[in-house]
Structures are given as C-alpha cells and as structure tokens.
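Meet the record:
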Amino acid sequence: MTMLGNKPLAGLERLEYERSIVEHYTQAFGWRSVVNVVWPLVGWLTVVWGYRADRLPLLAAIPAAAVFLQAFYMPVHESVHRTISAGRTQWAWLDRAVGSFGAWMLYMSFAEHRHIHLLHHTHTNDEGDPDLLNAKGTPRDIAVRVTLGALLFPIVPILAVIPGGTRLLPGAILQRLGAAAAFRPAEIRRAAALVTWSHLALLAAGTLVGFGVEVWLLFYLAHWLGRFFLSLVFGWLPHHPHGEVGRYRDTRVFTFPGSTFLIRGHDHHLLHHLWPTVPHYKLRRLWNEIGPHLAQQGARIEGRAARQLGIEPQ
C-alpha cells in the first residue's frame, strides 16, 4: 500500500478521489453471484440425497445442510444492491430472480429483505435501523432471538388468523413483533406473508408424504442454524457495539486470519457501506487500494487490517 499525503482529503476532492478508485470495481456483470446461487442448491440437494441413501448420518447432515443454506445469503445480498446486473436496466430481472430464489431458500421474502436492508444502510446504528432489533447485544442475545424465531415462525401466522389468537403470546414478544412491523409497510408485510405461508405449506405437505425429517431437520432446523451464523458475522460482528454513526464510523474493517473466507469479504464491511455496488468478492482488493485513504479519514480499522497499515486500531 502507498500512503497519500499527510493531510486528509476533503469535500469534492475526496469524493472524486474515491470515485476514481471505486468505479472500475462496479462495472462488471456479476456472474460469480449467479454461480453462488447454484452451488448451495446442488450442495444442499446432495446432503438430502446422502441422508436418504444412508450415506450421511443425520447428525452430520444437519450442520452440512446449514452450511449450504446460509450460503444463499450472499447472492441475495448482491441482488439487493444490483451487483449482478451492475445496474444495467435490461438485466434487473436477473437480480430479482436470483434474490427471490435465494431469499425463499432462507425463509425470507426478497422484497421484504431488500426494504429492510436498504433501511439499514440509510440509518445504520440510529433509531431508524431495523437491524438493531436482531444484531445489537451479545452473541448470547442473538442465539436467544434466533431460537425464539425458530419456535415462533410456524406459530405466529396461525395465531394471527385466529380471532384473539395473538393474545396468547407473551407481552414482550408482542412488543418485539410490533417493533419489527413498524419498519414494514403493508405491501412488504403481504409479500413476507406469502413466503411464510408457502413454507408452512411445504412443511405440512412434506410431513404428510413422509419427508418430515428432510423438511423439518434438513431444511427448517438447518436454516435457523445458518441464520444464527449469518446474524453473527453479518449483523453483529461488523457493527459491534453499534454505538457510532457517520460515514466512516458506523461499521468497520476488522480482519483476522481466515476472516475474508469466513465472512466472504465482509470483514471489510465498512467498504460495503461506503460503496454498496462493489461485489463482496472485490472488497479485499478494493481495500488494498484504498485502505490508506480510509485511515486518513479516521475510519474504524481494527485487527490485522490496522497492523497492515502500521496504525493503532481506530
């Protein structure tokens, strides 16, 4: 890395410098993300086949299924920011197709996730950030929230259509559901409900025709195990302790041995918030080029990344 002058850039000069570095990272068609929605499906189906063929024990199949299911999130996330089409209007349908399929595999509505995720980018760490409901706190807090989510997902929609049914839920849970709903307009809630009911139908039908283990353990349970991992490495770790706002401080670059592979580039999460149209698999290369500039801007840089620049964590 080469350092800039001692004086940080400011104003238009700063923006033009950043644009000159970042622009060529955003223009290529995102074929890698298309591949990234295919191999998790192949992997998950292979796990199911291995279990049904008695070639993979259930206790190994469940975590293996979780690994493949959580991998659907990266193409979903890229679709939200339209990095597959690289902003080309004629290919916007592919962003939606990849995002919708990957989100469905994660028990999510793509329309809902896109709405919530863009709110997170706009209001990172302030009272308008919906991610604070799930990502702020400790890893133990996140584990409790994910466990409650897994228990409530098949129950709450049914109670909601029974007159007075939701009164059976504890007040704290009702308050939390209300807080989450406040971030979702009616059309987004309808889109999420369609996905939820389609999954409930799949769980019921799979159980009735003899695929209960597959739909409940290799799909449903494995999904929630994967979601716990995603909540940790994409929600909690990059933003912890969720205490600062500002262009260079609301998230961070935090690297450690193996972090780029483990978090798929989002150990450089600050770069994603600064330039969300850069695909996740290009973030480390961008960091190698623009890291010194970010340090001069007072960005949050911690772990190995700080040592790489020869600075104290900041």
About this structure: The CA atoms of residues 2 and 292 lie 7 Å apart. The chain has a mean pLDDT of 96. Residues 31-236 form one domain. The chain has 16 helices and two strands.
